[in-house]
Amino acid sequence: MEQINKSKVFLAACMALIVTSMTFAIRAGILTQLGEDFGITNQELGWINSMAFLGFPLAMLLGGLLFNSLGAKKLLIVAFVCHLLGLVLTIFAGGFWTLIISTFFIGFANGSVEAACNPMIADMYTNNRTAMLNKFHVWFPGGLVIGSLVSKFMTDGGLNWQLQIATMLIPTAIYGFLIFTQKFPQSENIESNTSSNIKALANPLFLFMMVCMTLTATSEFIPQQWIETILGSSGASPMLVLALVTGIMALGRFFAGPIIHRLNPIGVLLMSAIITATAIYFMSVADGSMIYVAAALFALGVCYFWPTMIGFISEYTPKTGALGMSLVGGAGMFATSIWNPIIGSRLDAEKESAIASGLVGKVAEVAAGKAVLGFMVYFPVALIVLFGILFVIRKKIEEKRVNQAAAH
What is the CATH number of the domain that holds 56? Predict the structure, then answer.
């Protein structure tokens, strides 16, 4: 690995992840404008949005299967080309179908980034996998903060949505330049035989964690997706809540190393589930400024879920290789895309029953939002039970773990 500049390769991965999360934040910020400009209904906007969640797991599945033969560099080139295509097509979109296609490209690019970078980082930092994956995933909330602020200031300044999309071409160009100019490492520390990876998927621990990932991703992403609708009417500023949540998540992931070494991944996951369940319940009953406290607690709860789940797969079921990491991430995103419309329709139903019981306007919206959050508590509560089982049998599981350095 002499000629490989690990820090520059890691920087390329982080820049690609910033683009990924900015696409989520800016698209959320411009949805209303898109609807008005093209005369698109909310349902059609929902379909456009779902393309990002469909392209993502599809790219992760294909990327996971092809990682061993293509390598991280080629997958990142695919991501770069798809980001470029998706962004340019969005800027010049003429209506519903161009937006459907461009959003699919962006989703596919986002999934390709995860499929390329997670196994590459696990391989480059083999004695420090979960901590470094957390450090890489700092840039998901980091990019959300950047994207939300860009969108807010540009919208407030009366700048059109095409310009907001164009801002993402800058970090895209930077990571493209880094990919083409850097030498990438060969897989040396992960199982890189695809048929061995496929056989290892039958491991009961892997299948158990796939189920858990559908619950951790839903617990993290759904409240974030609906935070504006649910909290916007309750006197809290949705943008401030989002900035607070994502800021705390970025800090938590950045300093994940010592916590993971102290508690180990199973302990971290159990602790996260307990905090998340408490926070979502707290959000469903809190009022006024206490909503910010509940949101901060929620951020602490969910911040370790995604990277620690992927790190867990690479450390405890190492034979599943890049495929295992990609499938688990894909399962998380796929579950989110299924639950999103269900939660949306539940929100509508709760609002109707709130109005039927005599509540009006914003009061009805707040009541509906809180009822939905009350239902969302069941996801992390199920995780407390599942991770609790893992915690009880952790000594047996530790024997299969890839050796990790004691301190970093």
Answer: 1.20.1250.20
Distances (CA, A) of 287 to 266, 292, 318, 366, 370: 33, 9, 45, 10, 10
pLDDT higher than threshold 60 for residue 2: no
What are the tens digits of pLDDT across the range 229-267? 666 666 667 667 777 888 899 999 999 988 888 888 999
Which of 345 and 332 is assigned the larger pLDDT? 332
Q: What is the DSSP letter of 365?
A: H
Residue 26 to residue 97: CA distance in whole angstroms = 19
Is residue 315 within 8 A of residue 130, CB to CB? The reply is yes
CA-to-CA distance for 191 and 324, rounded, in angstroms?
A: 10
Ramachandran class of 235: left when φ > 0, alpha when ψ lies in -120 to 50, beta otherwise: left
What is the rounded CA–CA span in Å between residue 304 and residue 297? Answer: 13
DSSP 167-204: TTHHHHHHHHHHHHHSPPPP--SS---HHHHHHHTT-H
188 lies in some domain: no
Task: For residues 210 and 162, state if they share a domain.
Answer: no
The answer on pLDDT for 122 being more than 80 is yes
The answer as to whether 189 is a domain residue is no
Give the integer Cα–Cα distance in Å for 36 and 280.
33
What gap in Å lies between CA 179 and CA 16, rounded to an integer?
10
The model's pTM: 0.88
Residue 141 belongs to some domain of the structure: yes
Asked if residue 373 lies in contact with residue 230, where contact means CB atoms within 8 angstroms, the answer is yes
At 407, the pLDDT band (50, 70, 90 cuts) reads very low
The encoded tokens of residue 357 equal 């019981």
CA–CA gap between residue 13 and residue 8 (Å, rounded): 9
